[in-house]
């Protein structure tokens, strides 16, 4: 069932319940009010009659009551033949039931039976009776005519009250269902117009394709929930479009980066296949081809790491580790490469620090930082690597810092340093073999571990990159061993 139908139904049902409850309450109040007004009229009439009888003397004749407003005597005659009965009847009865006086010559029989008469001898008695087919409310009270005990019986026709109740209930039966139908139709029409912009948005959304990333939903001018929904959906579309753009850029850049070494490789192989090449030339060509293949493998691996990080699978084997061990191995491996240029690496690491991390991924991040530092260090320079902790209000983190004494990052490049395929000097870096993915990978790995990375040019020159990763919970921290250097 559509939302529209559901709302219409709920509205109709709600209206039905409210009208039924209100109608019942109104009818009940009306009946109670009419009954109490009839009862007080009877009481007043009975009291007047009792007072009249109390004054001793011959039994005064009872005057017939004035004709009622709603029932004239003509109507009475039509309905009940020759002897119309008036709306108000009064009888004076002896205690044995004999009718001593009556206002209505048509009613000569006593209006109370023996049991009611006996009861009325002691206290007033209320009852209803039917006279000539008409319902009457009756009240019988004890009285005295001089010294003689008598009964005063007063009655009044209740047809007016019953008619009023019946008319009201008929009106409710007619008006109630109409109001229910109207409420349902109104709700159906209202929800239809309220949901129209939603339907427009749905159709527009269904039309948007991946090639149409600039398309957005129309935002209604109303400042309501639907306008907010449209704005939020447009913000989501914006984010998706940006992500798609980044993805496409990434694929284009990756293709471009792969083409360069592949082209060189092909040229080298073509050159090697020409006739008359010396043995040495062939060995050189194969060595160069192997170097290009290495570069391709590294690039493919880097792309794989970033793709996995995008899917949220950057660290596969995370566990509590001592980053000092990872740093020691990384520094050892980098030192071997740096030695050829007289570059020296120093390591100051707090061996007690424990983090929850994937050791292979952390090593990859450290290797990328050391690779950059060695590459940018002048011959004979020193690279400082430190591991410490920082306890801040937000988090307690392990801080891995790699600082070299090279030219530092070009200041304008600093905000872009961690983006994919970004190089400060593309031409030179390409010659050196860098694809511009090293720092992007460091950032992915840091973020996958809930950490962060920043780069700057500290006072005194050179470049500095700080990698921060949250410390392992206290119970996983190792015993204090002091510093390794
Ligand atoms: N220690 C550093 N000193 C000065 N510039 C640096 C340093 N580290 C990185 N850069 C600059 O930042 C750029 C991006 O570094 P990144 O490690 O991401 O890429 P890359 O080293 O060029 O290539 P890759 O790491 O993929 O082999 C580098 O090309 C270089 O211009
Ligand atoms: Mg690098």
Automatic annotation (TrEMBL):
Primary location group: membrane
Q: Supply the SUPFAM superfamilies for this chain.
A: ATPase domain of HSP90 chaperone/DNA topoisomerase II/histidine kinase, HAMP domain-like, Homodimeric domain of signal transducing histidine kinase
User: Can you say where in the cell this protein is located?
Assistant: Cell membrane
Composition-biased stretches (Polar residues): 73-85
EC number(s) of the enzyme? 2.7.13.3
Per the record, what is one GO cellular component?
A: plasma membrane
The residues covered by the HAMP domain are: 192-245
Q: Region annotation Disordered: residue ranges?
A: 55-85
Q: Which residues form a coiled coil?
A: none
GO molecular function ontology, one term from the record: phosphorelay sensor kinase activity
Which residue numbers delimit the Histidine kinase domain? 253-473
What this protein catalyses is: ATP + protein L-histidine = ADP + protein N-phospho-L-histidine
Print the keywords alphabetically. Answer: Kinase, Membrane, Phosphoprotein, Transferase, Transmembrane, Transmembrane helix, Two-component regulatory system
Stretches with biased composition (Pro residues): 58-68
Read off the Pfam families from this record.
HAMP, HATPase_c, HisKA
Q: Which InterPro entries match?
A: HAMP_dom, HATPase_C_sf, HATPase_dom, His_kinase_dom, HisK_dim/P_dom, HisK_dim/P_sf, Sig_transdc_His_kin-like_C, TCS_sensor_his_kinase
What name does the UniProt record give this protein? Answer: histidine kinase
| Source organism per UniProt | Streptomyces cellostaticus
């Amino acid at each position: 069932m559509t939302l529209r139908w559901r709302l219409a139904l709920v509205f109709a049902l709600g209206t039905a319940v409210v009208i039924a409850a209100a109608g019942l309450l109104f009818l009940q109040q009306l009946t109670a009010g009419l009954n109490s007004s009839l009862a007080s009229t009877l009481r007043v009439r009975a009291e007047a009659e009792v007072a009249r009888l109390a004054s001793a003397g011959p039994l005064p004749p009872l005057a017939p009551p004035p004709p009622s407003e709603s029932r004239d005597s003509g109507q009475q005659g039509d309905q009940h033949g020759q002897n119309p009965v008036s709306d108000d009847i009064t009888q004076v009865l002896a205690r044995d039931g004999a009718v001593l006086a009556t206002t209505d010559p048509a009613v000569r029989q006593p209006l109370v039976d023996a049991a009611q008469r006996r009861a009325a001898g002691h206290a007033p008695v209320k009852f209803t009776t039917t006279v000539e087919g008409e319902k009457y409310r009756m009240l019988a009270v004890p009285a005295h005519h001089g010294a003689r005990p008598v009964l005063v019986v007063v009655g009044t026709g209740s047809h007016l009250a019953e008619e009023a109740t019946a008319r009201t209930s008929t009106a409710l039966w007619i008006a109630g269902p109409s109001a229910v139908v109207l409420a349902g139709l109104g709700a159906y029409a209202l929800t239809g117009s309220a949901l129209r912009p939603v339907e427009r948005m749905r159709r527009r959304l269904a039309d948007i394709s991946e090639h149409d990333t600039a398309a957005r939903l129309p935002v209604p001018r109303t400042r309501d929930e639907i306008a907010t929904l449209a704005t939020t959906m447009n913000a989501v579309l914006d984010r998706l479009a940006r992500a798609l753009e980044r993805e496409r850029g990434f694929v284009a850049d990756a293709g471009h980066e792969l083409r360069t070494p592949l082209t060189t490789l092909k040229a080298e192989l073509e050159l090697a296949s020409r006739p008359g090449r010396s043995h040495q030339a062939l060995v050189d060509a194969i060595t160069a081809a192997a170097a290009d293949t290495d570069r391709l493998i590294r690039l493919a691996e880097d792309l794989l790491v970033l793709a996995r990080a995008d899917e949220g699978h950057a660290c596969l084997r995370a566990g509590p580790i001592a980053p000092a061990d990872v740093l020691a191995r990384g520094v050892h491996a980098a030192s071997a490469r740096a030695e050829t240029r007289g570059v020296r690496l120093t390591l100051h690491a707090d061996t007690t620090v424990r983090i929850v991390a994937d050791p292979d991924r952390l090593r990859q991040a450290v290797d990328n930082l050391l690779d950059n530092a060695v590459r940018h260090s002048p011959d004979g320079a020193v690279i400082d690597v430190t591991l410490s902790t920082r306890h801040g209000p937000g988090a307690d983190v392990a801080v891995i810092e790699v600082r070299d004494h090279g030219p530092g990052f070009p200041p304008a490049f600093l905000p872009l340093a961690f983006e994919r395929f970004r190089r400060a000097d593309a031409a030179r870096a390409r010659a050196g073999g860098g694809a511009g993915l090293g720092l992007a990978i460091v950032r992915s790995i840091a973020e996958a571990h809930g950490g962060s990375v920043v780069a700057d040019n500290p006072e005194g020159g050179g470049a500095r990159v700080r990698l921060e990763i949250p410390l392992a919970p206290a119970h996983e921290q190792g015993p204090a061993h002091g510093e390794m250097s």
